[in-house]
Amino acid sequence: MTSPADDRPLLEDAVDVPLWLETDRDTPLAQRADRDRGIAQRFPAVNDVGRVRAWWAALRPGDALGASLARGRRLVSIALAALGLLAGSGFAAAVLRYDGSTPVNVVRAFALLVGTQSFLLLLTLALLPRGRFGLRALQRSLITLNPAAMAAAVYQRFAKLPESVERLFIWHAGRSSANVFAKWQILLWAQLTAVAFNLGALASAFALIAVTDLAFGWSTTLDLTPHDVVAVTDTISAPWSAWLPQAVPSYSLIEGSRFFRLEHVATPARQADAFTGWWPFLLSSIVMYGLLPRLVLCLVAVQRLHGATRNLLLADGRVTALLDRLRSPSLHLGATAPEHAREPPRGDIARRTARAAGPAAAVIWAESMPQSSAGEATLELLSTELADVPFLAGGRASLTQDRETVERIAAVAPQQVVVFTRAYEPPLLELLDFLVMLRRRLRETVSIIVCPLPETGGHATAEQIDAWRRTVGTLRDSKVYVETIA
Q1: Which candidate, 469, 464, 474, 477, places its Cα nearest to that of 438?
Q2: pLDDT higher than threshold 90 for residue 212
């Protein structure tokens, strides 16, 4: 089935969905779960991105910040492409300026139109790997001087982007989803500018060649013979020599087109065609060493930016909680007594893992609730039953015992793990360390849900829940998030 979101840029949903989910946290969990499961049944999808986008298409109130951001990104792309075209055409016109007295020095033209671009291309390649040690300092300097980064900063300033999304256009060192998105967005803009620059340079050069009597020659202070120059040009022309031989300078062209900028040297006595045969070589060099590498990098940047945008959407704890609700079965609580998890039969781990495929595991941290209540609480929170008896951790348990508990949880191989803790107690480093140990032993797809519990007969305050969310957010793991029952 085609998703109703297929006609929208993915960036729109990557921006709007987490922002909307933040406001949706005030909706009771039971209502959210029923609503989201109903949408999931109407719009089945084959992957997580499709699930989220189909869900959002069913609830989306209309254009929001994401649509504005997508339009702004298109405007920046158009502006940079136009700037590249103007810069390329103007630069080529200046380099190939010919007043009829002295031929255009092809050595100088090649150095400016091809050599400079090759150097800039090497600097661009230095931005691709993850910055480490000395490379990080170099990348920081290159980013500061990058025209695309400057354009992003200008757009960010004049668009008055909110703090929640302005980081999408600020490229700093780091591996967060926002930083990776910013990196590939700026690199894509840079490649679009470079492609446009080369197209402008080619158009300007071809126009000058077509409508003027542009003459080329070569001159250098270095002690080079025509044979030396032939060796150099043959090496440069190797990529196209087999299928475009007319763009490979011949020995007679090189020998006959050398000139010196001395008035007593009578270059005009030579045949005119001795100074016109260089242009195929020069244009082919621009295409091969300027335009094509930038097109390749542009395609790479498009692909990586799409992946970064997908990750921007999925690498968010609020979206992880949504996906867990979309995948959860439609169950309704009707029991009058708490549901107790059964003690698993003693046997090998393989048999227990096979029986536990799919359900959840519960961890009671620091005796925050009775073991007999964990099954019902998990059913209410996740709409699924426990795969094993509730596990105990924290509190009076030692670090060794907590590690053993993590191993037992990993042996069950659950798809979700809920950690019950007291909402009114401040988040402790011991719990964060336990969550880190748990994540290392579980598969990356397993969600870990921290559920702060209120005092008996009371309710967890918004300040308490926000404190837990901020603390859990320091783990920078989108698969670890905070959810409350009431």
Answers
A1: 477
A2: no
Judged against a pLDDT cut of 70, whether residue 476 lies above it is answered with: yes
Residue boundaries of the structural domains of the chain: 67-312, 349-482
Q: Are 418 and 362 in contact (CB under 8 A)?
A: yes
| Residue whose structure tokens are 């940079």 | 80
Question: Could you read off the pLDDT of 48-76 as tens digits, one per residue?
Answer: 999 999 999 999 888 888 898 889 899 99
Q: Which CATH architecture has domain 349-482?
A: 3-Layer(aba) Sandwich (3.40)
Assess contact for 285 and 114: CB atoms under 8 A: yes
Task: Give dist(CA 24, CA 371) in Å, integer.
Answer: 31
* Beta strands at 216-217 and 360-365: parallel, antiparallel or unpaired: unpaired
User: Each residue of 135-156: pLDDT tens digit?
Assistant: 777 777 777 778 888 888 888 7
Distance of alpha carbon 253 from alpha carbon 258, whole angstroms: 9
Q: How many C-beta atoms surround the C-beta of residue 377 within 10 A?
A: 22
Q: Is the pLDDT of residue 357 over 60?
A: no
Those residues whose C-beta lies under 8 Å from the C-beta of residue 329, and which sit 6 or more positions away, are: 37, 383, 384
* Per-residue pLDDT, 8: 84
HSE toward the beta carbon, residue 168, CA cutoff 13 A = 26
